[in-house]
Design brief:
The chain is an alpha/beta fold and about 325 residues long. The chain has two domains: about 170 residues, Periplasmic binding protein-like II (D-Maltodextrin-Binding Protein, domain 2), CATH 3.40.190.10; about 140 residues, D-Maltodextrin-Binding Protein, domain 2. It has twelve helices and ten strands. Strands 1, 2, 3, 4, 5, 6, 7, 8, 9 and 10 form a ten-stranded mixed β-sheet that branches.
């Protein structure tokens, strides 16, 4: 009789333990982060954020979902399919204002800024003897603007349209490595990339070809390009960034940022930034990709002046003594 009683007690206790374990597991929060294409910068960085967070938190599980990139990540945060993502400042601005790709589908107003991730620098590459010295000189030439639908292509398409060149150049929509190959083989006169510096495709080009990079910032500024596209800013590609490029190149950049849905709790948003922008977190992100070398507390709110800051992010950056964007 005692033995039966003991067995029953064990069963009850085991049931309680299993029940508590099940409740604990079901209480864990799940966060999906929008990345990009396999092997691309966005997916690599999103994976870096997720791995850092999973090493930090026991109560939240972070996963990465592949996507077409910045615009898709914004749309999916808007629909509630994603909770976080890597996006460009420009796309976030356009979404918040219902412009360009968002003109027909409407504004996406639930995306909130968390922090700066990397600079995506516009880089215009041509051969040393092409005769191309400016944007205006592209007329009559063959240029790859970037992969179709990419931020790279969108930037160059905006520039060509602004300068009324879209029908006066021959454009291709191919990726960086293909562009480098075709420039080297004489199939292109120039190509454009919006990447971190140094970019692999341009390293390949400049190490195998007498090439040059074109400074575009002054020409764009003089044409009031930034009045139409305020989310771009000046970027300097330092001399020596590429083989044979022994001069500074003045260009423009869009900014890759980490964003979250407004539904992410203030406490979680704060904890994410506290982990990511710690010394250990920044070292982790730099090990993930050299494009994050500008990530720092000092640069943390760069790109944060076009969409609202998440309240948790606002509190975090205030606590670090960082002046918030207006």
């Amino acid at each position: 009789m005692k033995k039966i009683h003991w067995t029953y007690s064990v069963a009850v206790v085991s049931g309680v333990i299993l029940g508590v374990t099940s409740l604990t597991a079901s209480a864990k929060e799940f966060i999906s982060i929008g990345g990009g294409g396999t092997g691309g910068t966005f997916n690599t960085l999103a994976s870096g954020v997720a791995s850092r967070m999973n090493d930090t938190f026991d109560d939240v599980r972070f996963t990465v979902e592949g996507s077409a990139g910045s615009t898709e990540n914004i749309r999916r945060i808007g629909s509630g399919d994603l909770q976080m993502g890597i996006t460009f400042t420009g796309d976030s601005y356009l979404a918040a204002n219902g412009l360009e790709d968002f003109a027909e589908t409407g504004t996406v107003d639930n995306v909130r800024f968390l922090g700066f991730v990397f600079s995506a620098v516009s880089q215009l590459v041509t051969t040393a003897d092409s005769g191309i010295e400016s944007i205006a000189d592209l007329e009559g030439h063959r240029i790859s603007v970037g992969s179709a639908g990419s931020g790279t292509a969108q930037t160059m398409d905006r520039i060509l349209e602004y300068f009324d060149l879209e029908d006066r150049v021959s454009t291709s929509y191919i990726n960086g490595s293909q562009s480098s190959d075709q420039l080297r083989n004489g199939q292109l006169d120039a190509y454009h990339g919006q990447w971190g510096v140094p970019a692999g495709a341009i390293v390949d080009t400049t190490s195998s070809l007498d090439a040059k990079l074109i400074s575009t910032y002054d020409e764009l500024k003089d044409a009031d390009f930034f009045d139409a596209y305020p989310f771009y800013s000046e970027a300097i590609i330092p001399a020596g960034s590429y083989s044979g490029i022994d001069y500074d190149v003045k260009s423009i950049r869009d900014i890759g940022i980490l964003v979250a849905s407004e539904d992410v709790s203030d406490d979680l948003a704060y904890r994410i930034l506290e982990s990511l922008y710690s010394e250990e977190g920044l070292e982790h992100m730099r090990a993930v990709s050299n494009t994050t070398r500008e990530m720092s507390l000092e640069n943390g709110v760069s790109g944060g002046n076009f969409i609202p800051l998440h309240p948790g992010a606002e509190q975090f950056w205030r606590d670090q003594g960082i002046e918030l964007p207006q």
